[in-house]
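Reviewer 2 asked us to include a model.

Predict the structure of this chain.
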Amino acid sequence: MNVWRLLPPAQGDPASELAAGAAMLAGLATTSQPAIRWYAAAPQPALVIGSGQKLSEVDQAALANAGITLHRRASGGTAVLFVPGFLMQDIALPADHPLAHPDVSESYRWLGEVWQATLAQFGVATTLIEIAAARADRATLDPLVARACFGGQSPYEVLAGGRKLVGFAQIRRREGMLFQVGLYTHWPGKQLAALLAITEPERRLLVERLAERVTDLATVCPNPPDLASLATAFAAALYQRYDVTITPADWTAAELAAMAAAQNRFAPLG
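Predicted model (structure tokens):
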């Protein structure tokens, strides 16, 4: 039987939660055991941009006026808004794990399939984005829409009604890989667009286009599941497909040290 560690959330603020993901990767060097954790955005909103995204794409004045902090994550992509109802999952796999596929795109297949089975337990019908479709979407994606991470489509992400519901990201290190997953209870497209450095006409257009491409739990499910319900359903789907048992565990001393060391890396910018 395969046993994965279920780690507790960090402190809830973006810097701590992002540092916790880095700690999970570091922990693989000493535990050699897969780990998973679930967390939700803190009450205070924060904007988190991708590792290579330009600061010039963000409206600093709008952030300051709204009292929203800005952070840079270790994975790629573009802007993601951390607001209440944004539900997240991190999964760390050792480099030699059977699910740690060497091909970046193909490595998401198992995750997409487990998420599809998870959401089916709540009556949500979904489809997965095939690699060819994701590449075609990327080739034709409007640069304006690409400013928002959920505006694009990546392999094996989860669609409901043709719109993106579950988004994936990935970080690879020598010790293994970290999958980062997010979905919204309520999609904050208008609030996100207001924080980007674009003109007002572009902002209105972005909100409209994102609404055509992104959906949320409240839209696709009459009684949207909370984080605990999703975690239970995901564990059941993972057990059914891969005979994985998820067992609660504490952070190791090495992981806590790595988390503390990573705090400054994810501290608010500016």
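The chain is about 35% helix and 25% strand. The first strand starts at residue 2 and ends at 7. We have added this to the supplementary material.
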